[in-house]
Replication restart protein PriA (Blastopirellula marina), 732 residues
Amino acid sequence: MSTGPEKSFDYLVPDELVGEILPGRRVYVPLGRSNRRVMAYCVAVERKEYGQRKLKYVMAALDQQTLVSSHMLSMTQWMADYYLASWGQVLEAVIPAAVRGNAGTREVTLLSVPSQVAMQLATLKLTEKQQKVLSTLAAATKPMTPGDLADKCRVTQAPITTLRKKKLITSEVRRVSHAHFDDIDIERESAKTLSEDQAAALKTILDQVNASQPKPILLHGVTGSGKTEVYIQAIQNVIDQGKQAIVLVPEISLTPQTKQRFASRFDRIAVLHSHMSDVERHWQWKRIASGIVNVVVGARSAVFAPTPHLGMIILDEEHDTSFKQDSVPRYHAREVAAKRAELEKVPLILGTATPSLETFYRAKKGLYELISMPRRIGNRPLPAVRTVDMRYDKTTGYRGAISRQLYQSIQRTLQQDGQIILLLNRRGHSTHIQCPACGHIVKCPHCELPLTHHITDGSTVCHYCDFRSVAPRVCPDVKCGYSGIRFSGIGTQKLEQEVKSKFSSYPIIRMDSDTMKKPGSHEAALEKFRNQEVRILVGTQMIAKGLDFPNVTLVGVINADTALHFPDVRAGERTFQLITQVAGRTGRGDLGGEVLVQTLSPDHPAIEAATRHDYALFAERELPFRRDFQMTPFAHMVRIIARGPTQPSVELFMQQVSEEVGRFAAEKGGDISLQGPAPAPIEKLRGNYRYHLLLHSFDRQLMRGAVLHCREKITVPEDVLWIADVDPIDMM
Ligand code: ADP
Ligand code: ZN
């Protein structure tokens, strides 16, 4: 009845613990010959014959409350199976650490409204002050102490104390590490009159809400087509039925603007993000589990939010790669959401302007309902996109980041009081440092990848392991030592310098992970751009998504080719998505918009389709190619990665894996095609050599079997670590 490392085990429940040990709670059990005491999750309690088997007794119960519902137990079991992880590992990842144990040093009293009370808020006979206190607490988006609550309502402690006595407010004492919690300012907004496209979309969604086994829906709407308003009105319908909705967005989109959009329309929302304190996370988890929260907005892991009566899941920007977790369990929130929606019989809405081919293909096959919103709100035209062929500039010897055409457009836009976004998906100053005399490239000693020069502190940095050293003045190769070492390649720092020198009288801000380290800096920067204190925004993909600034009339893509030549089946798809998304940041107001895309491959199909805003054209060209090469979304993929400090043992191990996979497939009479084993594109990372092997097959179960077979059959050398990534996204 509890989970061990790979499978579940049966234990007996001692009489005194009957009723206390229930599915979804933790227990202590004896494990192994030494009967070592370990923590385990109870996944089922049943009366059954256990024949001759000698079963051990559970030692103790750990939880007074159930941590995971039965739906969640089925879902985590499915995840363990699908992603080849152990059920225990999945449970550990799904239930926040803060919920499993408590931490912190300061004691505070936190207040909450029990859900039974929240349901009948309007009918309670209370004084005006008590009413205010109670509704404020019910709507609070952060943990509240008696002091916070009194401050917020501008009352004394008296009404709070009365309500606590009446048991309309409950309290608990918690240990916290810090007592500051995120709050959301709420400005009310009313529903918009839907456009024709939006109304049609909403109708299709509501048909699924009322279906007995709802189908997932792909909401394919161009940038600015008003998808959020459709989500909001669909959620309203779900709330009216007494149910909750979960809205998943990429972490980077969890901006105050996004929070505000939901908070302005719904009374009780919870926002979950990755840099929340343990106490806050626990508080939110319990609040959600109590049923008091109507809408949960969060990144990837919010798909596990313990809503008691789930009515709908929305996943915005479904193509975004941040929905995939890069540590065990390596789940994709989109797939998990689909599973959860299926188990709880609720609709899943996948919204995007650039669907992943996986989702698009499912819609084409009729597995998903497809809604198209091809027009922008108010019939605003999509911006004109032009490519600038940078090969021409090369021959003139021009080495800057900004072409003549882009320079002219920037100048014109500034004169017309417009704002500008410039995208460059490379941070740092110079992206490689090379000696022109001997050709030596300055590389990371641990990763063997070129170091990037960061001008702010004169360091060179490895973007993979963060190794830092002082930038060399002479060639570091002892045999050479030439003094004219060259810094080349353009990162956001160098771009910022170039823009500053060319347009010196206009304020500019740079957004990338170097300038946006401090919590809150992201919001602060966007606020400056919103209130037009800043005219030019320079940044990495961080600025490509979701921003809605009507005054942005020019978008420049400095180098559209950064991702185009990656050894990744999705290189074209990523490039198409990035250009389309960033282009969508302009032309959102009455002022129109213009996009310039600088590239060395203006004829590349992905770039050409993006300049025409033509997703259908892109998919039409890309899908046959994927089908011919038996790649995703037609066949499934598993990526096996091994690493270790000695190259031959990693290589040898991977050869064994490859042989065993082949043998297994042949035994089963199935077909798995293999790419590799080969050194991974990032050949060496943090001192470890890396090899990878790609498995493609139409038969998911067969590949699963093959990996389990390898785990069982192959003795892994002590210094080698390996993982299997199901439906991989990261190919580096
Ligand atoms: P998307 O997410 O599809 O890119 P948004 O949801 O950001 O589009 O909507 C684009 C803009 O249109 C937003 O400023 C939004 O407030 C506005 N909008 C959405 N629906 C309507 C509507 N029915 N009437 C008027 N404005 C709307
Ligand atoms: Zn490194």
Q: What stands out?
A: The chain has 22 helices and 29 strands. The longest strand covers residues 673-685.
